[in-house]
Amino acid sequence: MFLVQLKVNPASKSFNKNWSQFKIGFSEPDSSASPNTAGSECCCGKSWNAFWIGNELLFKLTNSYKCGLHVFLNVSQEIPELQYSYYDQFIVGSEAAKYRMEAINFARGNCSTSKGLMRVGMSFSTFDQDNDPDGWVNCAARYEAGWWYAAYLSWFGNCGFTNFNTFSPHFLSLYGSETNRLFASQMWLECI
């Protein structure tokens, strides 16, 4: 499996990056973690606040293999409450297509962000490449995060409900219009 996205601090603005940075990917180490607290068995003894695999690698993997997407969400700061979704198909387009979300299909999980992640046909946006469908606002600049912004009205204007990367992350549940605040998120790609 490949780590696609990791965010452990909900107030972090680590995902306010330009197009080129999202293209190649980035990581932000946790400066407060030491090798003793991070666990030396993983990540060379390092701990991370933020990580993005890179849209170009995401495009290459999802177009060369059959890939699914695992989404892990922590929705409680006090008590670790993990919610999970699995999408058995996930495909991202090329840079020429603005890394458009070509396919995503919810398969199972105890929580579904399927309404919030239904971004098929939506292009990836950053503050310097406004590809979202709202002609009045640059969603990536407004919410200080690159993402696939949706074309429907929500509390966030026409930027959609679900965004794991913003400084105030939320997601829309499968069961109606319930919006949940996120405290941490991870997205993993599984390709065969």
From TrEMBL:
Residues 1-165 form the Fibrinogen C-terminal domain. Gene3D superfamilies: Gamma Fibrinogen, chain A, domain 1. Signal peptide: none annotated. SUPFAM superfamilies: Fibrinogen C-terminal domain-like. Pfam families: Fibrinogen_C. One of its GO terms (cellular component) is extracellular space. This is Fibrinogen C-terminal domain-containing protein. It comes from Helobdella robusta (Californian leech). The gene is 20208518.
